[in-house]
Amino acid sequence: MYQSDAGxxxxxxxxxxxxxxxxxxxxxxxxxxxxxxxAVLIAALVQLAQVDFARMVxxxxxxxxxxxVYALSYxxxxxxxxxxxxxxxxxxxxxxxxxxxxLIGNELITGYVGDLYFYTxxxxxxxxxxxxxxxxxxVAILSAMAANIVTLILMVMAYPLLDTLHLGIDSSxxxxxxxxxLVISSGVLLFRKILFSLPARDLWHxxxxxxLRVVATxxxxxxxxxxxxxxxxxxxxxxxxxxxxxxxxxxxxxxxxVVFAALAxxxxxxxxxxxxxxxxxxxxxxxxxxxxxLLLMGSEAAGWRKK
Length: 307
Hints:
This protein is mostly helical. It has helices at 28-48, 53-59, 64-89, 94-108, 113-123, 132-158, 161-164, 171-190, 192-195, 200-228, 234-248, 256-267, 272-302. It comes from Sandarakinorhabdus cyanobacteriorum.
């Protein structure tokens, strides 16, 4: 998949062998990062007023097992990114909080806003590589590729279930979705020498971590669904997982889980319990994004006076 390129930029080398980034307390990266922080704060406050907390609390499972699995599923993504950038840049523990802000920015506003925030965060750290955009770009592309591969596998598994579950879904939509993802993935592989900046060994490492991240998040989310509704068939969870993964491939759609919940309710409206579960999970994820977003972005905004 990847080949070593003698001309590739040594983006993964330690800070002792690369020029440090210039430190700027009020440079353009600070202003962009601050603007994104404010945007996330505003988005969190606006969406917070729309959450029906009473309805959500009434149907959230009370067992500790559900909450443990939910926490693992939520933090699996930032943890995977932390492992990647810890290897590439030796980022400190505080980088995990920056990666949480990245996740929340992508979810609350729109895709890749969080990546832009993380780019500004990396540019302000003198111990990072002198060209952080290349690494962030490569990680984002490989994240999408890993998600595409898992989505394709899920859709192949879900295809024979369309008729058995009698949900009235047009199988042609699944077919065209598979074709589109195959075309996109093939294009990335075809132009990999132009698209990627990291050395081959780092690309393989990033790909492995991203695959593990996607699979872990998928399994843990399905486990949450099972803990909440253990009587439902695994076939339904496979189909819903395929739908959720497919919807997540839309890069500029905020609150994907809310949209997914609405789509799931529309598709399986005859199953009130499942529809209620999807709506509850979407609300729970949104509240988690909002709560952590307000806490993390608020703490960052409070620290502006110290700079």
